[in-house]
Amino acid sequence: MVKKLFSLIILALLVIMLLPLMTDFAPFAELSRVAEKYVQKGPAEVGGQNLVTSVIVTYRGLDTLGEIAVLFIATAGIGFLLGKSSGKHKRSEASQLVNTGTAFLLPIILLFGVFIFLHGHLTPGGGFQGGVVIASGILLFVLANADSQISSNLLHWIEDLSGAFYVIIGLLGLILAGGFLDNSILPLGQFGKLISAGAIPLIYTLIGLKVGAELVGILNNMQRSQ
To answer: Beta strands of the chain (E only): which ranges?
Structure first.
């Protein structure tokens, strides 16, 4: 009874805190100076059809680097807390439905994840979303093959190399162009085409690989701790 009452009190406090955000919300009548600059100059400077991607990957590239670092720290923390289980537990076999569904869906899920981060400069999506989709496909594979082991060395290599090349591209932008992660180190190409927006598709590919490897690493640590 006390726990239920405490939960209701917490819920009521959250409603009181969030209600003003919903009732007093009013859209901006005009763009801020920074946002107006992004809208006016972003397509020409960056060459990306998806303006959100242009802002995240180039203008605020250091923020994206910080987000990747936070995810890496979370992955390392989970690996440290879970550790490696020395005991061997017998795991139940997946049903035929899960096995058949995995064999059919896994290639589609992985291909869709790659599609998302390769087209992040054209449509909503990008490296983080594509990496999560890839990790969800690996999760499905783990559910269907409970006794399988994901190579930790392979995950570490993918994570390390993608992170290193991400920083290298950022430094090349600082040396060869106008700043860190400046995508103009490669030709901007034709606006709206797949091969466009300079280095953004390459940057998002590296982000997708790194995020996917880190999330799969979390799943791998959870699997081994069972």
So the answer is: none
**Number of domain units in the chain:** 1
Q: What is the pTM of this model?
A: 0.77
211 domain residue, yes or no: yes
Domain of 122 in residue numbering reads as 49-225
In a domain, 39, yes or no: no
Which phi and psi (to 5°) does residue 45 adopt? -75, -40
pLDDT, residue 94, reads 59
| 80-125 per-position pLDDT tens digit | 777 655 445 555 555 677 788 888 899 999 999 999 988 988 988 8
Least confident of 27-36, 65-74, 84-93, 195-204: 84-93
**Residue 155 counted as domain residue:** yes
Task: Outline where 24-49 has alpha helix (H).
Answer: 33-46
Q: Is 161 exposed, middle or buried (0-12, 13-18, 19+ CB in 10 A)?
A: middle
Question: Does residue 150 belong to any structural domain of this protein?
Answer: yes
